[in-house]
Amino acid sequence: MNKIMEKFNDFVMPLAEKIQGIHFLMALSESMQAMLPVTIVGAFACLLAFIDVGGYQQWLASHAIVMQFFMTIQSLTISIYSVYVLLVFPYGYGKRLGIQEPLSCIPLAFVCFMLLTPVNLYSDIPMAWLGHTGLFSAMIVTLITVRGLKWFLDHNITIKMPAGVPHMVENAFKILIPFCVIIPLFGIVGFYFQTTDFGSFHNVIYTLIQAPLKSVGLSLPVYILYQILMTLFMFCGIHGSSAVAWMTPIMTAATQENLAAYSAGLPLPNIIAGAFENCILVGGIGATLGGCIVMFLFAKSRRYKQVSRVAIVPQIFNIGEPFLFGVPVMLNPILFIPYMGGVLINTLIVYISVATGLVARFTGVTVPWTLQGILGGLLGCSVPWQGFALQMAILILDMLIWYPFIRLIDKQALQEEKMTEIQQG
């Protein structure tokens, strides 16, 4: 079994290194994490504007200024999510590529994106492309502009200033030539696509890339693969997010789409969105809250009693590392079965429950990842009690899955402790 684990680790580690070497994906993942507070604030503003509990909506109807307050926050956060991508992602990507002044990547990418956006000159900008529908376009623009800027800098196609010139002035002239080439090119591309049936470059990307990718990426087989990879990497001691960065834009777009539909009172289009994953991963990656509770309640060995006492509180808030590394679950062939099996069973149950309508779809409200384990379904589901009931059912199921394996390792530890006591005499 140890040889199998060694071979397994030998396969995963090189794969992790290759994925982590893809600067675009790593920068994208980091940027999405950086924007999470904005997403959460906007999502909760939407939730507070549209949740229908008791007489709350009637109260809002008679206090229009409160509704306007929530909607203003929503419209200036999640409704223009692509703008925030353009303010964060180009910097992170440029920094990972080794551009000495990565701040310059932000205005370049933003200007080029806006040149591709059809506008009424001096009047208004269509909000649609600034939100989730323009997300993939924002990423593609960032990829091209930042890579383009780096190409000019690497080939020294710049204006060099004499010694003694202030650094800010020197940098401004250094990037002037790439700006003068790249920005007009995007302007030409933007005007060209406005003359086509698509109407804009953004519509081309959304129609030919974003929509098909979302359809494939949110299918059950691909989503199961996503969960398997994330759990496998975590099992090997590598944070699972590094394995699934490619899913980040797909999940984000689906979540934003559901939230937009929810705020407009329309049917929610996506099964997998928002707090859907919270119902699967109760306790974080590997759905370890159930296992930690079982250990806390039933462990008899001193070793696992102590581990569970230390791990239970952070585990309730989805911080699974004390349990994962303290037991350890990581690279433990016995605990690999509940660790991976629980996630797969959870995924199937939650997906089928939502797909069949047994549980209502999720609104797209993004809950903080440290939110207490069983509250994600309550806050993120369009019918809150159904989301709460689903997550509670998953937690109980996880406890049943983990129970025999926890008892097995606890029995082994108890025997070892007794043998040690006998030897010490």
From TrEMBL:
Keywords: Cell membrane, Membrane, Sugar transport, Transmembrane, Transmembrane helix, Transport. GO terms for cellular component: plasma membrane. It is a multi-pass membrane protein. One of its GO terms (biological process) is phosphoenolpyruvate-dependent sugar phosphotransferase system. Coiled coil: none annotated. Residues 8-405 form the PTS EIIC type-3 domain. It is found in: Cell membrane. It comes from the Bacteria. The chain crosses the membrane at residues 34-53, 65-91, 103-123, 129-153, 173-193, 232-251, 271-298, 391-409. InterPro entries: PTS_EIIC (IPR003352), PTS_EIIC_3 (IPR004501), PTS_IIC_cello (IPR004796), PTS_Sugar-EIIC/EIIB (IPR051088). One of its GO terms (molecular function) is protein-N(PI)-phosphohistidine-sugar phosphotransferase activity. NCBIfam families: lacE (TIGR00410). The phosphoenolpyruvate-dependent sugar phosphotransferase system (PTS), a major carbohydrate active -transport system, catalyzes the phosphorylation of incoming sugar substrates concomitant with their translocation across the cell membrane. This is Permease IIC component.
